[in-house]
Design goal:
The protein has 158 residues and is α+β, with helices and mostly antiparallel strands. The protein has 3 helices and 7 strands. It has one domain: 2-Layer Sandwich (Heat Shock Protein 90). The chain has a 5-stranded mixed β-sheet. A two-stranded antiparallel ribbon has the order 1-3. Strand 6 (136-141) and strand 7 form a beta hairpin.
Amino acid sequence: MDVKQDVVSIDDLVRTVVANANFEGADKGKLVVFEGSRNASVRGDRSLLQSVFENVVRNALRHTPSGTTVTISAKQAADDTLVVVVEDCGPGVPEAQIEEIFKPFVRGDYARNRASGGYGIGLAIAHAAVRKHGGTITAANRTNGGFCVKISLPILKS
């Protein structure tokens, strides 16, 4: 499948995802903040990229406790990629399962189960979509608790 080659402002796209996530999280006392970037753009499919960020941010929002904040930051790396980092305050993922979360239909104790609506495909879809855009997606537990997902995408050069 070829990816559309539209110019996509990642700041605008992430701000839309944040607004939706804050609407969903408000009644649970959860907040999502975006620390912005230099408004970098990438070439790709806006709806596919929006799906990536919605999957990652909704997972973070789901697992962060009430009264905490999911933080999203974006910055340009030295290799002309835009690195978007999504961090939550949740329980994290067992180290042995971190690489598995990007595989389809994989769920662990940390994830939603099928009874609550999760099928274990959100991060697999995000992984495939990021790769189609020439980027990478990685995950790690945060040193002081919580979970972190990093999405790197090639910046559109003007």
